[in-house]
Amino acid sequence: MTYKEQLDMDRIPQHIAIIMDGNGRWAKEKGKRRGEGHIAGATALHNTMMHASKLGVKYVTVYAFSTENWTRPDEEVNGLMALLFEKLDLDIFMDNDIRFCVIGDTDRLPENVRERMNYCISKSAGNQRGTLTVALSYSSKWELTQSAKRIAAMVQEGKMTIDEITDKTIDETVATSFMPDPDLLIRTGGETRLSNYLLWQCAYTELYFCDTYWPDFDEEELCKAILTYQQRERRFGKTSEQIAEENNNI
Ligand code: FPP
Q: What is the pTM of this model?
């Protein structure tokens, strides 16, 4: 039986976050340039988004460019920006009813990328089938610093008191305030770390690591990750017995 055939379609994760790692090594092993790995990675992203939305996943959030990635060689950074510009195609979002969103320090992006990005964001805002969020020039430390500054400003302006700050205040001031926390985080490429990605949001997210390089990540790999997620028990700090009782009461 394929992984897809084994899935429980009533328990598809609502939100999948992905660290798309391994483009460079995929290219190197094939004797290609790193940039060709990113091009193949963009195709894998397109395919994964389509498969995920067909399965009923409502939110897919991908790490495309971290704050730290600005330190890569100019040639690679410029190539990635050119690829982003080329791949931001509104028709894809409109034809598939996908809302496009971006999180990150977008002021650092080149003007042409920002313009096309904002165009796709505003035109696709009403799409309902799913949401693709791309983390661009993003890191959790950047995001949480921004959140802290916003909360401090609200306190300074007398809009709230320090005692009124709760975890909900942080939920509402981080870049992902418009979406639920990820149920499942997938990292391809064999590394087992979060690399400054959605650290606040992944407090109770199931983590899935696989060796497959991102350009080779296909529908079966996605279904395997979802199946692994379905086989885990999410307890959110409670006991197994409490979870079983809650499930009996549904
Ligand atoms: C990590 O692999 C991947 C990236 C830094 C870039 C990911 C970008 C894409 C998949 C293209 C996205 C396109 C759009 C339209 C959003 P790596 O280069 O770190 O690989 P390595 O660890 O093997 O060197």
A: 0.95
